[in-house]
Design a protein that fits this description.
With 291 residues, the chain is mainly α. Helices cover 73% and strands 1% of the residues. It has helices at 2-25, 32-39, 46-57, 62-83, 100-103, 106-125, 132-146, 151-163, 170-195, 201-224, 227-230, 236-240, 245-249, 251-268, 277-288; strands at residues 93-94, 97-98.
Length: 291
């Protein structure tokens, strides 16, 4: 796992440099500071890692893969900026730093998210060395993953659950998290197959499993994690009485379920040989991480 951590950090550094270069080209205006604050705030760059190594399986050109990777990081950053707003999850810290609406204001945070979403689609639409049909297919899947059949739906389900007097069951929370968290992870994992016009079903199976395992581990870390390491307030969902995988399954059964999902994910990659090894390692990392 030590070698994998080096690989994860190296990939994150490549993505960070590419993000900085891309934002530099966007110019310096009213929105530059909050956008940079939102995008260049560290993180594991897990979605970007999945994009780059999914593309590597199918020998997609490196510059194409990196641009797709920074696009998903922009979209992910947009989702976090909006998720942190008082009308959503109302968080004041993100990775140990003030959230955009705290550092600036709610209007600026809303516009920052809007701009990052648009930027993500612009980056995909202008992918180098890529056939127009492949770009359109990738755009369609990204729109679906981030919109009313994916991430936005998941957020709406989450908000509705907070207002409802009826507690979520395990099927409800699974559906919610597959949309809110899993949809962008799925897009990231299948991006290489889409760009190279290959069958994406095995990668989709892999992605569905790691996406769910990722959220289960998040729920576990919300109970057992370190707030300083996480850079955010923990046990917020517990305090609010929200249903989580841990509250529904119990901590030990949640850990077992996450482990089962990772085993399923690794099995789904059996056709891809050594080129898929980084994606096997990231699956293991998901349930071993401490933040």
């Amino acid at each position: 796992m030590l070698n994998f951590n080096v690989q994860l950090n190296d990939t994150a550094s490549i993505v960070e440099i590419a993000l900085k270069e891309m934002l530099q080209k966007q110019g310096n205006d009213l929105m530059s500071a909050p956008i940079r604050h939102a995008v260049l705030n560290g993180g594991k760059r897990l979605r970007a890692f999945l994009v780059i190594h999914s593309c590597n399986i199918f020998e997609v050109q490196k510059d194409t893969a990196i641009q797709a990777a920074i696009a998903i990081e922009c979209l992910h950053a947009y989702s976090l900026v909006h998720d942190d707003l008082p009308c959503m999850d109302d968080d004041e810290l993100r990775r140990g730093k003030p959230t955009v609406h705290v550092k600036w204001d709610e209007a600026t945070a809303t516009l920052t998210g809007d701009a990052l979403q648009a930027l993500a689609f612009e980056l995909i639409a202008s992918l180098p060395n890529t056939d127009a049909i492949r770009i359109v297919e990738l755009l369609k899947k990204l729109a679906k993953a981030s919109g009313m059949q994916g991430m936005v739906l998941g957020q709406a389900q989450d908000i509705q659950a907070e207002k409802s007097e009826v507690n979520l069951n395990i099927n409800d929370i699974t559906s919610l998290q597959q949309n809110k968290t899993g949809a962008l992870i799925e897009w990231s994992a299948i991006s290489g197959a889409i760009l190279s016009n290959h069958d994406d079903r095995k990668l989709l199976d892999y992605a569905k499993s790691i996406g769910l395992a990722f959220q289960i581990q998040d729920d576990i870390l919300d109970i057992e994690g370190d707030a300083v390491l996480a850079g955010k307030r923990l046990q917020k969902d517990v305090s609010a009485g929200k249903a989580t995988f841990v509250s529904l399954l119990g901590i030990e059964n949640a850990k077992l379920r996450a482990k089962e999902l990772i085993e399923e994910a690794i099995d789904a990659l059996s056709d891809y040989g050594d080129k898929a090894e980084p994606m096997r390692q990231v699956a293991k990392f998901i349930i071993e991480r401490k933040m």
